[in-house]
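Lab notebook, bench 4. Continuing the backlog of folding jobs that were queued last week. Each job is logged with the same field layout so the records can be merged later without manual cleanup. Today's entry covers Dihydroxy-acid dehydratase, a 579-residue chain. Filled in by technician R.K.

JOB TYPE: sequence-to-structure
TARGET: Dihydroxy-acid dehydratase
LENGTH: 579
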Amino acid sequence: MARDGGITPDQLRSARWFAPDDLRSFGHRSRMMQLGYSEEEFLGKPIIGIMNTWSELNSCHGHFPERVKDVKRGVLQAGGFPVEMPTLSVDESFTKPTSMLYRNMLAMETEEMIRSHPLDGVVLMGGCDKTTPGLVMGAITAGVPAIFLPAGPMLRGHYAGKILGSGSDAWKYWDERRAGNITDEEWLGVQGGIARSVGTCMTMGTASTMTSITEALGLSLPGASSIPAADAGHQRLGSDCGRRIVEMVWEDLTPDRIVTDAAVRNAVIVAMATGCSTNAVVHLIAMARRAGVDLTLDDLDALSRETPMICNVRPSGKDYLMEDFFYAGGLRALMTQLSEKLDGSALTVTGRSLAEGFAGAEVYNDDVIRPLSNPVYHQGSLAVLRGNLCPDGAVIKPAACDPRFYVHEGPALVFDSYPEMKKAVDDEDLEITPDHVMVLRNAGPQGGPGFPEWGMLPIPKALIKQGHRDMLRISDARMSGTSYGACVLHVAPESFIGGPLALLQTGDIVRLDVPNRRLDMLVDDAELERRRSAWQAPQPRFDRGYGWMFSQHVSQADKGCDFDYLQRDFGKSAGEPDI
Ligand code: FES
Ligand code: MG
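JOB STATUS: finished
OUTPUT FIELD FOLLOWS
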């Protein structure tokens, strides 16, 4: 039944496949019957693709086979016809050299699977870091109604009476193990306790950052991103998504109506207030550009300066994890605190405004979700730097580093590769002081390859033994959203393609000034010019295959690392396929 301003059954996208009285449609209908469905089940109904990023090696999505059933239940209840569409399962734990190499592959797959099949709307099932932006980027470009179902965070980690946070505590305990402070038994206990349920990392790492951003963009149901994966509420969320996507199809509520300038701005403000992962920068830019919103690093920095970080969840916050955030009221409650800064009129997948979605939410623990008058950090969690080391920008997370590094000068210790750096940090006799600036290059989008999460360079053993746990580190890599410390990341252009980081030498003095957003090497221009003319480009990382294609087409960090030919302004869309 058509709704006001919506579509009628004969206008369903899938009707092009199934409705005509011709030979092709006969074939499509007969193949549906081969699958065991009678015409009454699918003809004239919204066909809902459930884009499922599950695999048996994706530990964060272990509940998806069950959750698909909940989504299907909702779709059927609302009069739609659900079909599961398995898509690329990119996970943080096992995908090497880095899941980031495959974010764009997932985005391409999502876009093409939607475009080439008789789907009227999609439920996007993701959560483990890159799956969220990958699915969202593809769905925005594909342009059919889409709703994002976040995997939900796992339960708090637990061992021997202590609460453990994903990633963050792994690094912390590893440093203690390297310092000889914990036993094998304790190490094994942490291993078993740090990830004890299905769901995504339960710090405010990249997964929860990206699902929170997606909710703030308006692409998830209100409150969805905060529900723990193991909570029965998450099953109900699955069927809610199933019911709602069917209505969205009738309403013709497509992503371009949701992902507007105002929505992107809302998402950035929420990201900064949550103490987001540095990866948010790259993914936000890429997602926004897919919708034709030209978000820049400078926009992100400007909004960060005026948005206090009010979410006290680790690693930027001190004490709490996503489970606590859920009990404290979750993202809806956080958005009530930000209501004066947000554009509450932005449309969401509910068909109503963002403000209607968080209306009535309460903060139940104001130490977890702080009022603006008592923030965890007075600005947003990220700062964008520029200078002669990073003319196209770099990112630091001041909220998660020791304030004594906000303004810092020290001699560089430069490594050209990860193995070289790793060998040095394990050398107990390494000549290094806490004022040194450790630098890793050839770790960017092309150099890594794939922009790996190497940016939280390990503190050298020599310093660990002296009790140091932070130092200034610089790279053209990313870092895990669960990481922390004085790490400058995403230096652009990257060194592998001749960015100025390639010209830095061990012993050069590097100067960081976070309040003034500067990062420079104190080397004069004539000397830099001399080094530039002597610089030789390294051998390409790939000679064939997907990696070769990636290297040819990936953009730099400040542009979101999308492929040039996937971006909106690259060329005209192929449109609907001939049937
Ligand atoms: Fe999947 Fe962290 S490993 S979200
Ligand atoms: Mg991560």
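OBSERVATION: The longest helix spans residues 232-251.
SIGNED: R.K.
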